[in-house]
Amino acid sequence: MTATPATEQAVLDALSASHREWPYSDNHDTVNDPWPLAWDAAAFIEEWFAHSEHNDLEEAICYLPLNPWKFGYDITTWHDKKEPQALLRAHLLRIVKGWSGETNLIEYLEDEPELVESLGFEDGCASKSTLWRVWNDSRLELDHKRVIWTIGQVLVNVARENDVPAPEEVFHPDPSVDDPGDVEQDDSTVRDRTIANTREVWEHAKPMLTENYSLSRGDNAEVHENAFWESHAYMGSRAEMYAEDGTRNFAAETTRDRVQTGSTHRHHIQKINPEEARQMHRDTTEALIERARRDSELVGGVLASIDITKSNPYRENTELEFDEDGLANTWLLGYKEKGKDEDDLPDLHFQWASIQIVGLDVPLVLDAIPVSRGLSRAAIVDELLSKATDMIDIEMVMMDREFAHDPVKDVCEDRGVYYLNPGMMHTSERATCTRLRRQGKLVHIEQEEDSSSDNTPARTTLTDFTEESTETGVEAGQDAPARKSVYVPAMKAKRTADDSDDEEQESKQEDESQDSNEYREGLLSDFAEATEEDEESAGRMFGDLIEEIREEEEERRLPGNDEDTRLYLLFETNHPDLQPPDDSESLSEVEKAHMVSRIIRKYKYRWGIENGFKQIKRFRVRTMSMKFEYRFFNFLYACTMYNAWRLVDLLVKLELLADSEFRFKPLVTADLFLTIAKDYAGLDPPD
Asked: What are the tens digits of pLDDT across the range 296-353?
């Protein structure tokens, strides 16, 4: 933050000179007529942003005077520990951000401890229930809430007039409009507003696309270049449409006089090499990011995920070529299914790796690369991060277990990005699970020793079962954040003991399962109590992460106690908010559980990229071509259309105040967007 006591005093001095009546509300009964409070706030905001060093909207909220007594409620009847002015400022922040409920506000503030303190909270942010009561439990009259809404609008408008990033007024909730309540996806209002937003977003997005995408053609070309991009968008928005039929259908509907044939379309598109296609997609996405930032989106560090997706199986074996090393096409990767004849070829796929924004931000695909045979996971991560970090500030990247390798961690640290991924359960880690179970530990953090050190980090072995052990820390290196292994309760893990025909063995397994389940339930209860959540909420904190990870572990036969291993889940990270063990000796189990949950629960957002892959396929032009350049361009262009859809979805949520109800899923479905987009995408009049 850039404000200082000196700049604050300069604003107050300017107020005294320009608004001699300020504070106007001192001479009025604001309990019955609160609008003088809006006048006072507007005058302060105007002078605040007039100062050359004040260029942050959230900072202005932290300094804005909001006297709770003037808003007409008796503090002593309900206020307990939280500062009343801080509570009002927190709700003002919620309004400015466009959030209709307290959930998004709480999750945002949990990651912004400095902002929490600046708002006026002395010992941490208020709970969700406290914030809810302030706004919904007759603590404020309707007129006073409208004044706060109005102050939020003034903040946004004055900030934008002074070139400070803030939401656009057209998308800011109107305080005179009542909350529409539950919003249904098939509501006619949703469709009407989706159409309006689609028109506007495509009006801005199409020039971004046509200015950044280009073809290498002769100067005497008769078909306008934009016809290629329009027809590709047209074909991608229709199910099972290939280039040959797609260009004919496009010609029948467009107002253009000349349109390329299907073969000409494929010929020119497949001449675009992967590097050129990536640059075009990145340039377009950067323009979309800039557009989103005008609504105060994507302005801070974001969470990102890296993963690999594959095409539909390629089964045209007659066109395959082989050499002494096997399949000559290094872009086709094979997967042998269980039970398949050894002489049969495996299913062959083209693969693409991508990096996508996940979490509560707009889930845009930042970049993608084609995956060839022999390309390492570290090389994939390095290439994707090298470009994505130039586009946006990435706080942490999340990956699945196939990326849990030291070279990948090296890449993340070299790129200045924190990482989070499930770890591999080897003998040492499985032994640690048994030790934690015997000690009754909820969570456990182990720090790796600095790689530059000559000492070998101590690791848990099977002999530790019979020895007294305590958590010890290793001093981290100075050049990079310390790497840590984090053990958390696997609360929703299922027992998967092998079946047995022996009744006695089955009975024994049932007894062991019951004991294990009772212990797991005890861990769940303890963790819920430690984090002040109900058991169901605490289970969701980590439990949603378990199923996919556990399936991979059950396929690997390793020494150690299987029951104890299923009680815990291992994560690896270098995030600095997880304190090293030697620095956390003074922390209680409750404090450790809180500290760990704030970081590890972010991993649930990684599945956003999996859902993204499923949706991107719906925007992709179909093909049977063996040209990986053409296939890769299809994938990237579909990612561009996917990005446009997610931006439309965000704007509709903000307008309908539905970002809380549809926080983890789109309000505007892909089907609805495609139905509308195909009427407006690619059918504009000739350039």
From this structure: 778 788 999 999 998 877 666 555 666 566 666 777 787 555 555 555 666 788 899 9
Query: What residues contact 142, with CB distance under 8 A and at least 6 apart?
Result: none
DSSP 8-state assignment for residue 358: E
pTM for the predicted model, two decimal places? 0.63
**Pairing verdict, β 326-327 and 332-335:** unpaired
The token pair at 327 is 């399949």
Q: Read out DSSP for 1-16?
A: ----HHHHHHHHHHHH
Q: Which secondary structure element, helix H or strand E, spans residue 350, and what is its range?
A: strand 347-358
Using CA atoms, how far apart are residues 67 and 521, in angstroms rounded to an integer? Answer: 47
3 state DSSP class of 258: coil
Q: In this structure, what token pair is assigned to residue 499?
A: 């079946």
Rounded distance between C-alpha atoms, residue 586 and residue 476, angstroms: 19
Distance CA 233, CA 679 (A): 11
Q: Do residues 398 and 602 touch, judged by C-beta distance below 8 A? A: yes
Please state, in angstroms and rounded to a whole number, the distance separating the CA atoms of residues 68 and 75. Answer: 8
Mean pLDDT to the nearest integer, 11-29 = 87
- In angstroms, the CA 667 to CA 197 distance is 13
Work out the end-to-end distance of the chain between its first and last CA atoms, rounded to an integer number of angstroms: 46
- Residue ranges with strand state E in 391-510: 394-398, 418-422, 444-447, 484-489
DSSP state for residue 367 in the 8-state scheme: E
Q: Which residue(s) pair with 368 in the sheet?
A: 354
Classify each residue of 621-659 as buried b or exposed e, where b means 16 or more C-beta atoms within 10 Å of its C-beta: bbbeebebbbbbbbbbbbbbbbbbbbbbbbbbbbbbbbb
Name 306's bridge partners.
Answer: 355
Q: CA-to-CA distance for 518 and 512, rounded, in angstroms?
A: 10
Looking at 294-401, list the stretches that DSSP marks H as alpha helix, in order from N- to C-terminal side: 377-391
Give the list of residues 6+ apart from residue 490 with CB closer than 8 angstroms, or none: 520, 542, 543, 546, 550, 566, 567, 568, 569
Distance separating alpha carbons of residues 367 and 387, to the nearest angstrom: 7
């946006």: which residue's tokens? 392
Using alpha carbons, select from 514, 520, 497, 509 the residue that is nearest to residue 569.
520
What is the number of other CB atoms lying within 10 angstroms of the CB of residue 580? 20
Name the β-bridge partners of 308: 353
Render 298-326 in DSSP notation, one character per residue. S-S-EEEEEEEEE-SPB--GGG--EETTE
- Dihedral sign from CA coordinates of 498, 500, 503, 508: negative
Pairing of strands 365-371, 347-358: antiparallel
Q: In Å, what is the CA distance from 380 to each residue of 71, 109, 241, 331, 408?
A: 56, 33, 31, 14, 9
φ/ψ of 290, rounded to 5, equals -60, -40
Answer yes or no: is pLDDT of 226 > 80.
yes
Q: Return the closest-CA partner of residue 656 out of 154, 181, 127, 306.
A: 181
pLDDT value of position 116: 92
Q: How is residue 637 written in tokens?
A: 């262009």
150's tokens: 């109005």
